[in-house]
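Task 17 of the worksheet. Students: predict the tertiary structure of the chain below and write it out as structure tokens. Keep your answer in the requested format; marks are given for formatting as well as content.
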Amino acid sequence: MITIKTLTSGAAVVLAGLLLGTQGAQAHCDAIDGPVASAAQAALDSGNVNLALPYAPATAEAEIVAAFDAALKVRTLSPDAKALADLSFIETTVRLHRAGEGAAYTGLKPAGLDFGPAIPAADAAIASGDAGAVVALLTEHMQHGLEVKFEHALESQKATLQPATAAEVPAARARASAELGFVGYVEGLRAAVEGAAHAE
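Model answer:
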């Protein structure tokens, strides 16, 4: 029997750190059509480096400005030079953004990647000023995850945690793993809401 009830919108926020602070969000930041690369390209096209600076920490500002100035000079030489200069500046901006998050830069990801439902929903919420769809999505995902792990933990309780024989040890080990897995999942959700999954 499931004893976990429908989660509140406040509880859904817990899951945001897990869903949005994982590889999907990182790829979102690394994508050539993501917000960081788009801001870098807009800075180049407008001649205004300030459009790129919000996406990296203040400590990276001097390096971004230097890369920007170099790119502006080189990109006027030829169409090929422009393409290379733009790519270099975009990569520099994304790399410094990732460094500000404490993460490695592994290269730009192609445009048009499928980031799953969470990132587009978060982007749409920011654009519309309404987070209702994000709350519903996160609530559904968190409730499903909790229910699956909880059911597994309850099912595993058919085995004893005090095996009397060597033959009972594998089932006891599976029970301990399922129970600790559920507890760890719950603690992970709690930690996500208290920590910053994305650099601020």
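Marker's comment: Residues 150 and 189 are 14 Å apart (CA to CA). The longest helix spans residues 169-194.
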